[in-house]
Amino acid sequence: MVCDDHKDLLMGYLDNELGEEQRRRFEEHLSGCPDCSRELEDFKKLKAITDEVGLAEPEDRIWQDYWSGIYNRIERGIGWIMFSVAAIALAIYAGFRVIEQLIEDPSIEITLKIGLLTLIAGLAILFVSILRERLYFWKRDRYKDVRR
Amino acid sequence: MRRCRGGSREAFEVFVNKYMKDAYFIALGLVGNREDALDLSQEAFVRAYRNIKQVKPGRGFFPWFYQILKNLCISHLRKRKHRRAGSLDVEGCPEPAAADEFSPDVVVGKNEVKNEVAEAIGKLDAKHREVIVLRHFRHMSYEQIAEALFCNKGTVTSRLYYARKRLKELLSTEKGGGASGL
User: Fold this and answer.
1) What's the CA angle centered on B170, arms B167 and B175, to 5 degrees?
2) What is residue A56's DSSP assignment?
3) Which long-range contacts (CB under 8 A, 24 or more apart) does B159-164 make?
4) H or E segment and range at residue A38
5) What is the interface pTM, i.e. ipTM, of the complex?
C-alpha cells in the first residue's frame, strides 16, 4: 500500500510530470519506503503494457470524407429546421382557412359545424399538450446542456 | 474563432481538421467501436457548430468541445447498457448486462496481453476510463487533461491513480494474473 501523501507524486513520477525538486524529494522518499517502491514497480509494469495498446488507425478515406460528413449533417439540419417551420406555418394557415370556410359555409348544418370545430379544437389541444410535455422533459434532460 | 462565431463554415472546417483525430480516437477509447466513434465524433462537431457562440471569448475550443463529445459518448454508453439489459431481461438471462468492451478490430496488433488490457480498460467506469484514454491513447499532459476536464492537476493525478489501481486489480484477477503477469 502506497503512502497516502505520495499518491500524486507517484503518478507524477511515473508519467514524468514532476519538477526537479519534487522528483528529488520523491526519490528520497522511495529510498526509505519499500511499499512505495514496490507500488512504483507495479505501476511501471502496468504503464508499459498499457502503452503497448494502440488504437487502430482507420482507412485514409475516413479522414478525407470526415468534413463532408459533418457538412452534410449541418446542411441537412438547416434543411429540416426550414422544412419543419414551413410545415407548421402552413398547417396553422390551412387550419384557419378550414375553420373560416366551415363557419361561413351556409350549406353545412350547425350541428356538423360544432362537431368539426370541436374535433379541430381537440386536436389543437392534444398537439399543444404533447409539445409542452416534450419541452418540459427536454428542459430537465441532464445531458442536454453542454458544460462549459 | 471570431469567424466561427459568425457562422463561417470555412473557419469551422479548420477546427474540424485540427481536432478530428483527437475526437475520433477519444470517442473510440470511450465507446470501443469504430462506427460509433466516427458517428459520435462527427455529431459532436455538428453540435459544436450549432452552439459555437457559447464558447466564452478567450477560452479554448478543445476543452469546450471535449465536454460535448464526452457527454455524447456517456449518453451513448448508457443507452447501449439499457438496450443490453433490456434484451437480457427479455431472454430471462440471469447474468448482468455485459461490460462495455472494445470491438476486435479496434486494437492494433492484438495479442493476449493487449486483449486483456483493452478488455480491462473497457470495464473501467467512465470517469476512470476517460483519464486513461486521454493519457495513454492521446498522450495528453496532466495540464491538458485538467483543462479538458475542467478540474485541477491534483484531481487528474488522483483519478489516474485510482484508474490505474483498478486496472491493475482487473488485470490481476483476470485468470489469476493472466498474460499481463500483474
Assistant:
1) 140
2) P
3) B159/B127, B159/B128, B159/B131, B160/A11, B160/A15, B160/B131, B160/B132, B160/B135, B161/A7, B161/A8, B161/A10, B161/A11, B162/B128, B163/B124, B163/B127, B163/B128, B163/B129, B163/B131, B163/B132, B164/A11, B164/A43, B164/A46, B164/A47, B164/B132
4) helix A34-52
5) 0.74
Predicted confidence at residue B93, as pLDDT, reads 40
If one compares B98 and A56, the residue with the highest pLDDT of the two is: A56
- C-alpha cell at position A28: 528520497
Using the predicted structure, report yes or no on whether residue B40 has a pLDDT greater than 90. yes
Residues 86-145 of chain B with CB under 8 A from chain A are 105-109, 113-114, 117-118, 121, 132, 135-137, 141-142
What three-state secondary structure class fits B107? strand
Question: Does A50 touch chain B if contact means CB atoms closer than 8 Å?
Answer: yes
Encoded amino acid at B36, one letter: D
pLDDT at position B176, please? 56
Q: Are A10 and A43 in contact (CB under 8 A)?
A: yes
Mean pLDDT of A101-125: 88
Q: What is the pLDDT of residue A148?
A: 42
CB distance B37 to B27 below 8 Å: yes
Domains identified in chain B and CATH numbers: 1-103 (1.10.1740.10), 107-177 (1.10.10.10)
| C-alpha cell belonging to residue A87 | 410545415
- Split at pLDDT 50, 70, 90, the class of A126 is very high
Q: Which of A11, A63, A143 sits opposite B20 (nearest CB)?
A: A63
